[in-house]
Sequence to fold (555 residues):
Amino acid sequence: MKPALVALASFVALAALPGVALSATVHRFALVVGANQGGSDRPPLQYAVSDAERFTRVLVELGGVSPANAVLLRQPRLGELEAALDDLRARVAETQRKGGGRTELLVYYSGHADEKGLLLGEDRYSYRSLRDRLDDVPADVRIAVLDACASGAITRLKGGRLQQPFLVDESADMRGHAFLTSSSATEAAQESDRIKGSYFTHYLVSGLRGAADLSGEGKVTLNEAYQFAFSETLGRTVDTKAGAQHPSYDINLSGTGDVVMTDLRQTSATLVLGEALEGRFFVRNAKQELVVELYKPYGRTVELGLEPGAYEVRVEREAAALLARPQVGEGTRVVLEPGQFAATTPEKTRRRGEPDVPLFAVSGRNRLDLRLGMWRIASSPPTGTIVAGASTVDLLGSLQYTRFLREDLALTLGASVLPGSSGTTVSSEGVFAGDRTIVAVPLGLRWNPMRKDLQARAVKPYLALALGPVIGTGNGASVSARGVYAGDLTEVTVGGHVGGGVDFHLSGAFSLGLSAGYNWMADFADPVGGRSNYGGFELTLNVGWLFGAGSASRR
Fold:
């Protein structure tokens, strides 16, 4: 997919666990990869690395993966990914050689991808290479979760298809592989600034922490986790600008056993939503990170396995919002009931169908700037020049249109005017008496050199480069080496601008800015207003109006 797209695809699938709890003879190995950068032609993602970190935490806390067996790669190069897969293969083989019991491999990827493979910076790792490498790992169960654009293409290699969630039989000894992807082979995977993550990973992690435990047995199966993530992702993206996002899968598991993803009884800190509660719940930690989101119907009890700490639990209903602030300590089980919630102001969110972009995001938007300042002519009048009624410091007025192609790149078109001034100039170039006006029409590019959180930044610096015609008009009389002329005169040449500035976004619709640079131009064929060249330094104060819906991030 293109870089302006939000990426979200499931990568390596999760292993089958026998029985109700994780057995001591089951060894789980996890390789978790997050990559915000997908090449110079794609805008960086905001949350791929943090998604990978969240997924790692839930595997270690509830998924039976020991910290020693959890490998987390942040923005790796292709060689680092291949080396990590080689190391896992060796570790799994060594565990089996020692007769250590069942081995299970979980691989997760969050980042950019296209229909051919995963994009790690300027490198591509093909889906075929990935599947071949995973098939070479001698684990009993191999599960991959890919959260990226077009990641569903990996399921087509062996006949995977898009449909409602799969079912796994209830037995005790499974073998094979499972590939889960956050989108189909032709869809954009989307990330959201409201949840500060990708839709699919956000709901997958919410499900693994207990939101998907429909049976109430204290464990979340692969089927439950996928079904929860599928339904929530589809429901939350069906009306977004990028369109509905359909997670897909390719499952080839055989034998006995239900695939248990997480065991909620492994955590010592549990938050329980009592059966009398109803609505869409948002659970945030002390850092205001959204750790779990789910809809809980009346009559169902939901237990959530969380890290110990203070939480804020908000429940949204059709016409009201309620808030509770429980403290979940180590070794405690906190049960929330309706009486513990108080009325609060509804959270400010966008309605379904409105673009899910942050307040200061500019990608896909437009802006009109009114720019006022000065254009100081660089060259002094030639020696012996006599000037009456003219100045080397000129007022500048400009109107500029900006089209933001990406968060860090914009196309500009402007019209800058040095207003008419009158006077008499006597110099080595001749004699001029009358008035003149200079107009520049530059077409240019702006580039924001900042690399992180561009959508969330209200202060946006930039470098600018432009090129276009410079038109000079004069009305009066002139005497020069070319002869004597009286009346109107129009000259056209080419000019450019190089500089930079900074925009201060006051809201989603208005901005103030300061810019500076140098205006270069080729000489006019005939002097205009007693001069052949008006190149010089420019300094302006800018007032901008932004409009247009913009575009959400994709992967």
Notes: The chain has a mean pLDDT of 80. Helices lie at 48-62, 78-97, 127-135, 199-211, 222-237. The longest strand covers residues 483-505.
